[in-house]
Amino acid sequence: MSDEERTEKADKVSFRIAEILSRTAFSFFPNEYISIHRKLFQGIYKHAEKIRDYNITKKEYKEFYMPKNKPEIVTVPKANYIAVRGKGDPNEEGGAYQQAISVLYAVAYTLKMSYKTDYKIEGFFEYVVPPLEGFWWQENTAGVDYTDKALFNWISVIRLPDFITKENFKWAVETATKKKKLDCSLAEFMTIDEGLCIQIMHLGAFDDEPATVALMDTYLEQSGYVNDMNKVRLHHEIYLSDPRKVAPEKCKTVIRHPIKKIQPVSRIDS
């Protein structure tokens, strides 16, 4: 681009800024920002009116969503999620798990696209919907029996940006139910405080997870920690790959377990 072309485009933008500033009032909502961006840069930049999505999991929360492929201990802060509870084999065609995923994404994308509606969310900015996550357990089973997936209980979740409130969530559930013609009433606004955990990036099929979990357990033993899983603190997985599009051996899954520090035993001298 020549200097003359740059000057011409700069003059156009300056003139448009002056026009916008001559208005008597502004509304500080996403639609207004997008409209201003379009008016300023239409015919100048291809990305006029387009706003890049902000990926909260790769920026503010990178350490919790992109761990290394070796065990590490982290303290996970409290966060809010869209959640659906259920039980059964996650691979069952048309089963409860697959239905729950449909509900999660219906609500998640209703919130994400809210700026294109008349509903206004305070503090809203465009963002990438975070990855699917799941908390898993089996009742009356020592550890996890991967051979009998029908025994699984699960809470499937998608993380919410901090600016989403319970009121916003309620609106999204009602709106998604109406527009998607899908009953989203099972969705919950859930706050989870994981606290002290061990996590690792698992590369490979879900059925190969026991070998990765064994690495985590060995690291805990060597570091003076133990697993602290119970009815509240659960086995946690974060799915960074779409198994429909990625070969099983290349799938990336964050595995996270709640832990606690081993308390030293006090000695009493005789």
Can I get a quick summary?
It is built from six helices and nine strands; from the N terminus they run αααββαββαββαβββ. The chain is of the alpha+beta class and 270 residues long.
Overview features:
270 residues; nine-stranded antiparallel sheet; alpha+beta; Multidrug-efflux Transporter 1 Regulator Bmrr, Chain A
Question: Can you put this structure into words, describing what you see?
Answer:
The chain has 270 residues and is α+β, with helices and mostly antiparallel strands. It has 2 domains: 3-41, no CATH class; 62-261, Regulatory factor, effector binding domain (Multidrug-efflux Transporter 1 Regulator Bmrr, Chain A, Alpha-Beta Barrel), CATH 3.20.80.10. Helices cover 30% and strands 23% of the residues. The protein has 6 helices and 9 strands. The chain has helices spanning 3-21, 30-41, 62-65, 96-112, 166-180, 209-223, and strands at residues 72-76, 79-87, 132-138, 152-159, 188-192, 195-203, 225-227, 235-239, 252-261. Strands 1, 2, 3, 4, 5, 6, 7, 8 and 9 form a 9-stranded antiparallel beta sheet that branches. Helix 1 packs across helix 2 (30-41). The N and C termini lie far apart (87 Å). The mean pLDDT is 87.
| Helix and strand element order | HHHEEHEEHEEHEEE
Terminal Cα separation, in Å? 87 Å
Mean pLDDT: 87
Biggest sheet details: 9 strands, antiparallel
Query: In CATH terms, what is the fold-level topology of the largest domain?
Result: Multidrug-efflux Transporter 1 Regulator Bmrr, Chain A
* Shape designation: elongated
Number of domains: 2
CATH superfamily of the largest domain, please?
Answer: Regulatory factor, effector binding domain
Per CATH, the architecture of the largest domain is: Alpha-Beta Barrel
> How many β-strands, per DSSP?
9
Low-confidence stretches: none
* CATH top-level class of the largest domain: Alpha Beta
In percent, how much strand structure appears in the residues? 15-25%
- What structural class should be given to the helix and strand makeup? alpha+beta
